[in-house]
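Weekend entry, working from home. Most of the wet-lab plans are on hold until the incubator is repaired, so I used the time to fold the two sequences that have been sitting in the queue since the last round of cloning. Logging both here for the record. First:
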Amino acid sequence: MKLRIITSAAIAAIFAATGVPVSSDAHDFKAGTLELKHPWSAKAPPVAPVLGAYLVIVNTGAEADRLVGGSTPAAERLELHESTLVDGVARMRPAKQGIEIQAGKTVSLRPGGAHIMLVNPRQRPGEGEKFKATLQFEKAGPVEVEFVVQSKAQAPSASQDHGAHTKQ
């Protein structure tokens, strides 16, 4: 029991340190040694041509994996992007090589950093609603997840413009 409490506290601390919202409706997905924690997206403005999507990926295995793409019926295209700060200016570009998740490491896809970009949204779910996407990993393969839509007030670092199932 004590170990379970300590583990839960450690997970909450990781989420707090990475800026990931912790809520009672958090939802996680698993694919082999990858754990996909709380996929979320901000509510899309009515005319936004793109929308960011975020999650935390934990690799509990001994081998690296790589998020290489994906798809969703909620948008025309799903792209992986990385953001950098160059001379005080935020720059965003496609992550052409995907996003590596090193063995035993955690990668946070979040506003202002690496993230998923939904191009030309077809759906604009409201706050609290969910939409499905399939994320493609180099080794783990395709993983179906659901992104929950949250208000920007709930979202960590909402300054960027641009939300367990097991796969064996």
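Second, folded right after the first finished:
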Amino acid sequence: MTRVYRAAHPAPILGIKVWGAIAYNGCTALVFVEGTLSSARYIKNIIPPILLPFLQCQGDVLFHQDSACGHTSRITQRAL
């Protein structure tokens, strides 16, 4: 019989969430995200004030996101 022992972590694991964009000639500042980055928060707090000005300075670029729910929702796709 095989026994598997798992060490319990002595304290809650703390972490931070950040959002940022990079390009071949620059990057945005990191945005610290508290809680979940919902579509509404992404549209209000990141796209207009940070992402759009950054993309406008890049010229002809391809914008790529991961498949996070806040990135793929219909409302976010319409906002972009």
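Plan for Monday: verify the second prediction. Residues 22 and 28 are 7 Å apart (CA to CA).
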